[in-house]
């Protein structure tokens, strides 16, 4: 349901579902974390992303390549290059998707600065 919320641009609804899940004592898995991190991008909310990042660390899902890639992708898309690099450097395993997320994030943020100038 969280993924569907994101796909249909119901970002707040997806976050509410995630919060309900936590309130009910259900532990998110890597797919739930990845989905909610995309919601943060849709909401353009670094603060919410940082809160989710804290949950990722506490639950030790930062060790999962998919979740780490979702984290760095979220930070990169929100223009937080330093945080995306920190996440990338802390990932125990990187794959081609992780590398592409880093390259894409830096490329898009570089072009944003050129357009704003």
TrEMBL record:
One of its GO terms (molecular function) is RNA binding. It comes from the Eukaryota. Pfam families: PPR. GO terms for biological process: RNA modification. InterPro entries: PPR_At4g14850-like_plant, PPR_rpt, TPR-like_helical_dom_sf. The keyword Repeat applies. Keywords: Repeat. Gene3D superfamilies: Tetratricopeptide repeat domain (1.25.40.10). The keyword Repeat applies. This is Pentatricopeptide repeat-containing protein. It comes from Glycine max (Soybean).
């Amino acid at each position: 349901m969280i993924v569907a919320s994101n796909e249909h641009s119901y970002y707040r609804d997806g976050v509410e579902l995630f919060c309900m899940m936590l309130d009910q004592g259900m532990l998110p898995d890597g797919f739930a974390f990845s989905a909610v991190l995309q919601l943060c991008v849709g909401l353009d909310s670094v603060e919410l992303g940082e809160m989710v990042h804290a949950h990722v660390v506490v639950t030790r899902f930062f060790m999962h390549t998919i979740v780490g890639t979702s984290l760095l992708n979220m930070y990169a898309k929100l223009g937080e290059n330093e945080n995306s690099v920190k996440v990338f450097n802390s990932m125990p395993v990187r794959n081609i998707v992780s590398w592409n997320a880093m390259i894409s994030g830096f490329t898009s943020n570089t072009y944003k600065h050129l357009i704003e100038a």
